[in-house]
Design a protein that fits this description.
It is a single chain. By secondary structure, this protein is of the alpha+beta class. The chain contains one helix and three strands; from the N terminus they run E-H-E-E. The chain has a three-stranded antiparallel sheet with strand order 1-3-2, with helices on one face. Strand 2 and strand 3 form a beta hairpin. The chain is elongated, with a radius of gyration of 14 Å. The chain starts with a strand and ends with a strand. The relative contact order is 0.36.
């Protein structure tokens, strides 16, 4: 039997949504082992002067529970 745990992670980037996802995953992987998947549940952005200045993502990160 396999068991996974899911945590919520919020990450941001001034470059792109993809960069926010990659940075969030990299930071999470630095403290968790066995990440098996992510689900992006929210995409938002901060806007100034009609331009996006910060891309933000909220994601669920699943990882295997080890005994």
């Amino acid at each position: 039997m396999s068991v996974a745990k899911v945590i919520e992670v919020v990450s941001s980037s001034s470059k792109s949504f993809d960069d926010a996802i990659q940075q969030g995953l990299a930071e999470t992987a630095a403290s968790l082992q066995g990440i098996s998947g992510i689900e992006i549940i929210n995409w938002t952005a901060d806007v100034e002067n009609d331009k996006i200045v910060t891309y933000k993502v909220t994601m669920h990160v699943a990882f295997k529970v080890e005994r």
